[in-house]
Amino acid sequence: MALFQLYKTQKLDASVDELWDFISSPKNLKEITPDYMGFEITTPDLPEKMYTGMIIAYKVSPILNLKLTWVTEITHVEDKVFFIDEQRMGPYKLWHHQHRLAPQDRGVLMTDLVSYRPPMGFLGTIAKHLFIGKQLEDIFEYRRQKLDQIFGEIKT
Predict the structure, then answer these.
(1) What is the pLDDT of residues 24-70, one digit of tens each?
(2) What CATH fold (topology level) applies to the domain 4-151?
(3) Cα torsion at 38, 50, 148, 70 (round to 10°)?
(4) pTM, whole model, 2 decimals?
(5) How far apart, in Å, are the Cα atoms of 93 and each of 2, 17, 37, 66?
(6) Element (H, E) at 97
């Protein structure tokens, strides 16, 4: 079974504190997820800030408007530096997402590294090449645009 990675960077016109406050709040995830994903957090009474060991459940509709349950755990948090979420239940065989922030001369460099394995072995690999890879690119492009609207992107 193949392991795939998606690597994205974005330099934003914000302080580390401002950007961390936004991305470390689970409630803001819906704002940076495309509407067509049907994203809905189903965990009641989420705290304002994530913490190591936090479990978050969602409903998503990645294909054909079918609602799927996705459960992630925040496995590592270093305040204002990085956090990692890992799928515990959901559409992927493996999902490991690193979110990192690094202060720059101007703004903050945000880096995402997603390591993932589609389900269903060889068929999942075919699905990755047919639509999963494109869909992930589209989701992260939407997020890039939304964060640019919120904070302003610094072009280098």
Answers:
(1) 999 999 999 999 888 999 999 999 999 999 999 999 887 667 788 99
(2) Alpha-D-Glucose-1,6-Bisphosphate; Chain A, domain 4 (3.30.530)
(3) -20
(4) 0.91
(5) 11, 34, 19, 18
(6) strand 94-103
